[in-house]
Structures are given as structure tokens and as C-alpha cells.
Protein: TBC1 domain family member 15
Amino acid sequence: MSLASGHCVNVKQANSSSKKVSTEESEVIFVKENVSMRPTQDVSQQISGRFRILKRDSALFMTWIPYIPKNYVRTAFSVNSYKPSERDRNLYSIRAIPLAEIKSIWRHTPPLGWQYIIVVLNSGLAFPPLYFHNGGIRELLNKLKEHIRIVRSIHNANLYLLNEVIEDPLQKSLSSLELRDVLSVTSSAVLQEQSLPVFHSEDERSMEKLAIKGSTPSSGIDQWKFGTKQTHRHEESNPSAYQTLRPTEQLKETINDEMASTSVGSFELVESKLSDVPLSVWGRARLPPLESEEWATFLDSEGRVVDSKALRKRIFYGGLGHHLRQEVWKFLLGYHQYDSTYVEREERRAHKLKEYRILKAQWQTISDEQAKRFAKFRERKSCVEKDVVRTDRVLPFYAGDDNPNVSILHDILVTYSFYNFDLGYCQGMNDFLSPILFVMQDESEAFWCFVALMEHLAPNFNQDQNGMHSQLLAVSKLVELLDSSLHKYLKQADCLNYFFCFRWILIQFKREFEYENVMRLWEVLWTYFITEHFHLYLCVAILKKYKKKIMEEKMDFDCLLKFINGLSGHINLEAALRDAESLCVLAGNTGALCIPAGTPPSLTANMM
Structure:
């Protein structure tokens, strides 16, 4: 498939677009043995191979081919006896990528551990990290300099740009995933500790190519983040974009491997229940939203929530009337404790307002002269400014020129980047903040609720990508348990990575429903009632809903991804919630066992 086809691509697909180069007819410019790639976070599962730069006529090509098992090289650096299968060898091989198609190489030489490089293509695809166990990266770069133009970034000494000079950052969008505008969640700071270069894209139509390619170094320095209406930016000093690119392919391949190596029991028991009666029978009837009069019955005379579990159950089955969200969301998000009184909450509000103003002043008092010497501040602030003007502007609350609510959105996000400097601002945070500010109607309280939300969403943005990996793997296991025929079909279609569910999980279905329904769904998820992983069962429920169409039309990954994206605005939320509850009830403890330990929940337990 062409890299310009507008779809996400994996290693195998990227190789299919590379040129056929006969090694017998090519001159070997550079070769290094025992260069490895890691399909999973387990170092013992690394795959070793031969890395080469080949020259044919006037063109140069890069290849990395895993050793075949019978010739598997063992050295002092081979920490295990792992031998890749033929499937893995074909899946992970990098076959003759023209150097003319390589945009940059990022070199990492940690004080402890092995050196590795990350190769990023002009299309935005990034190959998984290649570990040079016996050294050789410097020699590789020196050899390349003899044949092509290489420019070292003035912002990051570890970033080498091939075939071009450094340009100003331009925008690019994930059009095939419909991830344009507000949902880019690339963090320019999340990976700051590793000082990775940021890949800000240059072309509005090709950012979709980023989505699949990538991998995760076992040292845990990755970040992949995509969702609908997403925009990624490129700037050589910013470390996030390669992280955004890499882990997607890592997760796809890791999940495929893990799905192939494990299975879930009790299929017959669960599926027999599903076949006996309609799925909806297993879920309770949805209730009308909680309103003021009923809300008052959950409070004592001093304002304490008497029975938080009963309250959360009520919200789970019916949600909240909109006028109550401003008050109740603060409990659901953990900003207020359930046993706090009216007086305590007012004192906290006043204290947090002062704290917020101090945080906000930290960046508002930066002079122009300081800003000239504060690249990270300029970079984050610029990213926020570009994102907020695209955030939910169709809503009256954010519509129009010089809208003060857009300015408040901007100020909160920049302030958060100072509050959590390690994470900084991630494109897409604006998408999460928008409903919170809309509900709170107060800058300080919106900020602190957003802080609380980001605390439990952090695993989605973690550098090691374990959060997203475990959630996607859990979805695949739950489908295997609850619908084995769908699982078998997705396996045959090479879709067990479940990347098509990525934006659902990453932003908690923000782009799948209308604004009101998004708020309803979020408050249901935040109740942490039946399970902390209810959002995963919701994924399964939606897939089962459209199972017949998926299988009858024999959708491959690209078609399935397009179809899933096209469901936005066409999913019945109440029916999906009921079906998800049914699946959760039916799966029981077996379903819980499908979810890997440490899989991020919808809400952390300390918020209850």
C-alpha cells in the first residue's frame, strides 16, 4: 500500500512501498551485526539482526534483517536465547528503505544501557528503535556523511536531519484518522527527560501516516497519542513527536504477539449466555438523570455525601442533570472529598484560587527578554495558542472572535504546563479541558478539576506506552472471551492490534458522541461503579453491535479503521452503555482476568 494512501501503515506495509534491491547487485557501504529491535518491553524478547547501508547505482538504501534461527548470532550482548519465529522475522524486517525517504535519525546514548537510533521517514513514519549493542552509531553517521547531506539540529545535538536543512515548524494533520484540530495529544514535554527531538509535520494531508509506525524502547521513553481532530507539530527541539510516531507500531505488534501466545478460557460458558437471550436483557434499564431534589437526599445537613457508593451507582445508571454537573463533577474527579462539608469545600475553593493565581503569574510575568531565552515556554505557549482556536468553536460557549472563554482555555492550559512541567502541554489536553470549563464556568475550579482528570489520564500519555498497550490488549482479550467468532475474524484480517479502537480509549470517546452525550458518558465512567475498566467493555459492545457488517463486508484494517471513524455521531449512547454493562456482568471474574494487572482505569481508586 502506498504511503500516500491516507491510511495508517505498519512495518510490513511500509516495507511493501520500499524498492526491491538485490543485495547481490548492491555495494555494502556499512554493516553492523547484532543490532536488535524489541517487540515488547521484555528485553529477553529482543530480536537481533544485521543492519546495512547498501548502494546501488547512485541510490542508498537502509536495511535491517533479523537473523534466521539456525544462524542466530550469540555474543556477550545476547542476553537471552530467544529465537524469533518466521512470522516475527517477516513482520519486523526493514527491507531496503531509500535514504532519500529518510527525514531524520535520532541518536540516543544513555549512560547506562545500549545505544539506539530512531529513523523517521519523510512521510512521518518512524521505525522502532534499533539497538546497537556493540556500538557503531558514530561510525554509521560518519559513513552517511560521506554520501549524503546530514545537518545536525541546532536545538538538539542528538538529532540529525538528512537531505534537508532545518525548517520552521509547520502543521500536519492525521486526516485518515480524522484527527485534525483539537485532538493531537503529542506532548512536547512528556519525553523531555530523554531530550528526544520533536517531529512537527509539514503537510496537512500526510500526518495520518504517523499513526502506525513506531516502537517503544524498553527503557520506557515513548509516547504515542492520537485521536480525532488531531494536529501534530514539528520542531527539532521538542522531544515528543517521534514518541508519538513510534509506539503505535510497537503496540500493534506487541499486542499481535501476545494475542498469538495466550488465550482466554470460558468461551463456551460466556457465549452460551449471549446466544440464549438478547444482550440487552443482561443490563439494567437506564434511568433519567439525577436532579436537584434527589441530589439533596445524598447529603447530610453539613453537605457531606452520606453514601458515595449509592450516589455513584445512581449516576452510573442515569447521569446528571446538567445544572448539577458543576457541583457533582468535583466529587467524581476527586477535587472534593465525599466526606467534605460545605464549609470545607468553600475554604478549599478560596485556597485553590490563590494557588492558581500564583501558578498563572509564573508565566504571565515572563518578560519578552526572558521568553527569548526560554524555548520550551515559547514552544508550549505557541502550541496552546494554535490549538485553542480550533477547540469546539461550533459551540456557542467557544464561538466567535475574541471569545473570552477561548482565552481562559488558553490560560489554563499554559498554567498547567507550568504546574506539571514534566508532562507540560500535550496537544489534545484542550479537548479534555473544553467540557470541564464549559461545566465549571470558573477558571480556577476548571483548572483544578482538569488537574485531577489528568492525574488519572496520565497512563494514556506515559512515555513507556504501557498504559495504551495494556488497554488495547485488554480489549482484544475481552473480544476473544465475549465474541470468539469476531475475534477469529479480526485475527484472520490481521487486526488483533485493535488500533482502530485507539482514539476511543485515548480520549474516552470524546469524538464519538455529541457534546452532551460526551459529558454523560464521562460522568458514567468516572463513577468507577461496576468496574474501573468500563470503557473497555464499551469498546467491545460497540464492536459487537457492528460485527455483522464488519464480517460480511470482509473489512481489512484500513477499511475497518475508516468504518470505525465514520461511526462518530452515529452511536446510540444509552444502548451502548447498557450493552457494555451486560458484557461486564456476563464476563464476570473471567473478564477481569482478561485485563492485565496495572491496566489504567477510568478513574483512580483514591478519587473514590
